[in-house]
């Protein structure tokens, strides 16, 4: 479970509701990226999934998963007081590369590497907790995963899309 969601449930009695991406949250991904079918993304517990097109198709396709959760009338989750890197520790061979607490503790950025199916992966996750006027507090999560070997080739694209995601998300909060 995602530690911020667990915190909201345990400490506030909140219910986490996953939301689809709205027009206000849409952004245009980098040129090599395309959207997974929205229904398939939602079935995979995601609001939106972006995949990187490559030929030939690699054993692991680089992806970005966006999740938007609402918690109702509870305070925003104080991400800075949580160890959000714990989300990665159950993964095989997990190594935490970085943890940043930003925006007065309401945004965290975590970088890690782990192994899945014999493939060395690199993950970057940004979580943003905020208050919405119409439905209480919310948590937006941006998770980008690629192979360790491909990270250098796609890092800039991932960061650019993360900046677009953050701009769109904070614009409506």
Structure, explained:
This protein is of the alpha+beta class and 173 residues long. Helix content is 22%, strand content 38%. The chain contains three helices and eight strands, in the order H-E-E-H-E-E-E-E-E-E-H. The chain has helices spanning 3-12, 38-43, 151-172, and strands at 17-19, 33-35, 48-52, 63-72, 95-102, 107-116, 119-132, 136-147. Strands 1, 2, 3, 4, 5, 6, 7 and 8 form an eight-stranded antiparallel β-sheet that branches. A hairpin with a 2-residue loop joins strand 6 (107-116) and strand 7 (119-132). The model has no long low-confidence stretch (mean pLDDT 93).
Q: Round the Cα radius of gyration to an integer and report it.
A: 16 Å
Number of helices: 3
How would you describe the shape? globular
**Using DSSP, what is the number of strands?**
8
Order of helices and strands: HEEHEEEEEEH
Query: Strand portion, in percent?
Result: 35-45%
What is the mean pLDDT?
93
Overall structural class, as computed from helix and strand content, comes to alpha+beta
From the structure provided, what is the oligomeric state, counting identical versus distinct chains? single chain
Share of helix, binned: 10-25%
Low-confidence stretches: none
Distance between the termini: 24 Å
Largest sheet: 8 strands, antiparallel
